[in-house]
Amino acid sequence: MKKNVIMKASAFFMSAIVLTIGFASCNPKNNEGGTNVDPENAVELVLAQSSVSVNEGLTVTVEITQGNGGYTVKSANEEVAVAEVSGTTVSVKGIKAGSTTITVVDKATKVKPLSVQVMSSTDNNIRTDVLYTITSTADEWSYQGDEWGNTWANYKGPKTYEHTPICTKRDYDSNKMNSTSYKADSSTKDFFALQDDDNVFLCAGLGYEGTNEYGHAAIALLLTNEDDPAHPGMKKMEVITTNLGAYLDWASYTSTPGSAYYNPADGSFTLVNCKGYLAWESGKKPFQFCADRTYTPEQ
What is the DSSP letter of 74? Predict the structure, then answer.
């Protein structure tokens, strides 16, 4: 009798263990060891950026600013870029030139895509396969008058221009997209002939944003690989000249470069306090300006 009691107690104890294991196995876990989020309590998945650009062989990071933990990432094309996630930081490494999408998923099955543009290691990160939107600040201005006090143009920011091209020396020499807007003016040809860096590029200068001709008034820059301590996370840019006429020693044309920096997260670049003077019509209608603006790739 005593033996039967012990056997029944043991059977009951084993059943309890089995039931406990069974219940536990029905409680899903995420890859961080936590349980799945109740859909009613889940928050939206948010990334700090929706797109990034990166050179072949280099890595950029994007922060997850909101989500439900348990993050995973997957590249749509691992021949172009691969990704991994640690905590709330997504690291994207460029493999070869091209574009792809990194999909970020959290444990609440919230999904967010991240567009990735991988640039050739021999190319500058300045994208010339797209057009740019120019957004000027309230510090941007221009003035054109004459010696008798007549005003021909008086402009003050802020203002926005769309669909303007960027052209590198490489693009110009090989007749690639966006170079046609710079081909007509001889000053462009003369300027590029003096450059020994394929990554030197031109962007529309003040007063020429809405046209298809970007000649002697174009602004010339060079992106460096140096970090910009004044703007954390940015790269330094060299402002070669605020107008080609000044660079080519045209009469009294002058350039007073301010500063510039590049944002690798979205491919934009910003000019700050870049001034110039163009002696149009032999100085009869002098044009003065201050470019204070950001050029952002149009996705």
Answer: E
As given in the structure block, the two tokens for residue 183 are: 């081909």
Environment class of 138 (CB within 10 Å of its CB; exposed 0-12, middle 13-18, buried 19+)? exposed
Candidate ranges 170-184, 206-220, 284-298; pick with highest mean pLDDT: 284-298
What's at 30, amino acid-wise?
Answer: N
Give, in degrees to the nearest 5, the angle at Cα 267 between 140 and 222: 70
Other CB atoms within 10 Å distance of the CB of residue 101: 15
Every domain of the chain and the residues it spans: 39-119, 132-297
Give the closest residue to 245 by CA, choosing from 220, 210, 271. 220
- pLDDT at residue 31, as a whole number: 41
* E strand spans, 24-125: 46-47, 51-55, 59-66, 72-75, 81-86, 89-94, 98-105, 111-119
Contact between residue 61 and residue 52 where contact means Cβ atoms under 8 Å apart: no
Going by C-alpha positions, the residue among 243, 142, 256, 254 that lies closest to residue 187 is 243
Q: 39-119: which CATH architecture? A: Sandwich (2.60)
